Amino acid sequence: xxxxxxxxxxxxxxxxxxxxxxxxxxxxxxxxxxxxxxxxxxxxxxxxxxxxxxxxxxxxxxxxxxxxxxxxxxxxxxxxxxxxxxxxxxxxxxxxxxxxxxxxxxxxxxxxxxxxxxxxxxxxxxxxxxxxxxxxxxxxxxxxxxxxxxxxxxxxxxxxxxxxxxxxxxxxxxxxxxxxxxxxxxxxxxxxxxxxxxxxxxxxxxxxxxxxxxxxxxxxxxxxxxxxxxxxxxxxxxxxxxxxxxxxxxxxxxxxxxxxxxxxxxxxxxxxxxxxxxxxxxxxxxxxxxxxxxxxxxxxxxxxxxxxxxxxxxxxxxxxxxxxxxxxxxxxxxxxxxxxxxxxxxxxxxxxxxxxxxxxxxxxxxxxxxxxxxxxxxxxxxxxxxxxxxxxxxxxxxxxxxxxxxxxxxxxxxxxxxxxxxxxxxxxxxxxxxxxxxxxxxxxxxxxxxxxxxxxxxxx
Length: 460
Ligand SMILES: [Zn+2]
Hints:
- With 460 residues, the protein is of the alpha/beta class.
- The protein has helices at 28-41, 64-74, 86-89, 93-106, 125-158, 184-198, 203-212, 218-224, 238-246, 290-298, 342-346, 359-379, 381-425, 431-459; strands spanning 8-16, 45-54, 80-83, 110-113, 118-119, 170-173, 176-182, 254-256, 259-263, 266-271, 278-280, 329-333, 336-340, 356-358.
- The chain folds into 4 domains: 8-153, Rossmann fold, CATH 3.40.50; 170-310, Alpha-Beta Complex (Hect, E3 ligase catalytic domain fold), CATH 3.90.1750; 329-367, no CATH class; 382-459.
- It has 14 helices and 14 strands.
- Helix 6 (184-198) crosses helix 10 (290-298).
């Protein structure tokens, strides 16, 4: 980059959270020490302020001192940010990427992650590799959060489910509030719906049938039993019929864990894939038998669509429009999914990017590119040089410590020799004895000196 500035006002960003453990290497003190040393080595860097978020996760950017630092950037008080490594800035690679690739450059802020070799003002292969490192940082968060999620779901499997309102067709056992028993009236409606579906009725035909024959809707039924208060007359809807047809509670199953937190990054809940529900069979009496249920669901001619939410697109929420920067939307088209800019689709004045890309192509290309980049990194002379340098430095350290060891031995031998000489002077030992011992020690010393000479040669 050409916009290098002469003097940098540096914001030092320090962060520590529980997920990092108590490791001394991540301690605030240690982070500060590393960054201070770095600043001291560069004459053009002045520390403006420290921004410390102690006890805040890197999974998101809702951290008071991070916000304070960003506002100091916006007010042009700092033009450089240093962290010990990338993970200190954040572990969410979408948002971290946003700051490093968009926000900091927009404000002409230089960002350095010392131990990861990231410096957005220097062209370096480490910068190209940065997104991959961020993904790895994020994985750390994901792993911690997965463990918590798993243990929660395990608890659900053990415990008995006491739902707040019983599903349509059932009521709570007055003897045991945690148990469902068949409700004579509404269970007939449920049976009717399955029967019609098995006989080839479409969802809309079922809705019409129920309306014409004055079947009571789930909401109205709850109102009658004083469980819910609805104002207007309720009518049968396709969605309620579908929900009933898809609910395995009628098979006597108890389904738990239908929703879970969308991710460790957010507090929103999403519906879990059906196949991942926790299912306890024979928890109560069935209204529908397995065969009927299977007929309704496995026969294509009935047209009950499977859960399309099962599709997972790896790049969803990760791809942005190159023109306007908004997230691209995913739309199902025949057997594939198309990706395009909604801004353009809704009003082409908002964004001129009218590309529609087949998602599968995009994913293939992305993986191809990642693979190439990874290969490039591994083969790059910079990576090799660094590896080579590390090995050499290691070896030198080893040799140097050997040398020190030998030098210590030599000085101890010299000491012994001078002792021996003193003994001879005070005639504690005779000439012959002295000569023998002296010869021995002096030969040993020569041998050591020889080894040291060899080492010095090697070091050169
Ligand atoms: Zn756009």
